Amino acid sequence: MEGTYGILSLLPVFVVIVTAIITKRAVEPLILGTLVGYAIIAKEGFIVAYLDSLYTELGESAYYVVIFGLFGIFIHMLDKANAVSGFTRLGLKFANTKKKAGFLTWVMGIIFFLDNYFSVLAAGVSNRAIADKNKMSREMFAFSINSVASATCVLVPLSLWGVFMSGQVEMSLGLEAGEGLAEIIKALPFTLFAWVLLIFVLLYQFRIIKPFGNMKKSELRAEQEGMVLPPDLAAEHEEEEEKKPTSVWNFLIPMVCLIAVTLITQELMYGLIVGIVLCYILYIPQKLIKFGEAFDAIFRGFEEMFVVTAIVISAFVLQNCNDELGLAPYVVNSVVDIISGGSLPVIAFIIMMILGFVTGSFWGMAAVCFPIMLPLAESLDANLYVTIGAVIAGAAAGSSTCFFGDSVTLSCSISQIRNNDFLRTGLPMVVPPIIVTIILYLIFGFVM
User: Fold this and answer.
1) pTM of this prediction?
2) How far is CA 116 from CA 133, 196, 227, 356, 385, in A?
3) Which tens digits make up the pLDDT trace of 111-137?
4) CA-based angle 39:43:47, to the nearest 5?
5) Pick from 188, 124, 120: nearest CA to 149
6) Keywords, A to Z (predicted)?
7) 106 and 393 in contact (C-beta within 8 Å)?
8) Long-range pairs of 274-277 with CB within 8 A, sequence gap ≥ 24
9) Cβ atoms 95, 104 nearer than 8 A
């Protein structure tokens, strides 16, 4: 097809997935897949083309470097001062069983709806120790916080995702500024994957549907052996000497202020900065952390998030390569001629999910799909709101499955597991919700 490299555009993604499964690593497969892509585009000049893209992305991704670094500093400060211990002690009064711990993690992820990063951070940091005490495997924990974050942020119109999706609807349908929000709200009941995924996470946690495959093995390991981490990672995160529990306020004050500032400013960076400053103000006078250690946390925080940042930036470089190969137009144009009004929602969901999974670019792929799918819905007399919901649901599906995407990467970092651990355990757990969603979109597409 003109402007694309046809089926060759799928090769880099295929290389990434296969190599990741074989090597059980994330950064190297992303780099290899991207090099393969630029070899297709630039032939013998592929290394120069790759480096040009990398240099460009390093400049454009400065925001993510700072955000992940601030995440690292905040988490490191909480951990060093044992600040979460008070909240853990309080939480264990309710969450004294594995099912209750799972429910608490689910609720906390929903409460912090503003942004998927925000949800993962808040639910992850506050509940990890509670999950450990109740012998929940870190793989299940990572799957839960990532799934809830991916679903919740697209179901709340006031989230950052909601604002972005509203803008895309306005541009695609030629609406006035502000009118897209009303359309998004009408489409929320049809954002089916997000609803289904939230329900499935609860069903898994309550063991109404039992974990299966590698996740079942991980859960049995945690329950029977008390080993919440994969065996080869357990030595890297050996239990430190038991620290004296601290006041619950040492966690609540920085976290509540972080939430408040983020909500008011609509900027997570400002919330994190305020949260970190409050950690310094609270912990140093109480001697929970030494003065020198507090400032060492700045470097340690960035250091501990280096792999996370490397994975995300490598994924962005791969996305640039996919854009140059014309991956998204190739996939969409391959099926657009065979779409009917009734089949449009399910096809829109599947395309958006696939593109999100293979590129790790959920907002970027939404920007590709909305201008194509919404006018197509109007011309085919398909239900517009089911179609809008399907595209948004596809973004959530991509976010919850892409093992090298930013949401999964952050969830794995907070859970202290590798992205490939999620690939082995968490990804299969998303398959049943996807199947249910596809069936529902087939029904809704032809009935409504």
Assistant:
1) 0.80
2) 25, 17, 28, 15, 23
3) 877 667 778 877 888 888 899 999 999
4) 60
5) 120
6) Cell membrane, Membrane, Transmembrane, Transmembrane helix
7) no
8) 275/74, 276/70, 276/73, 276/74, 276/77
9) yes
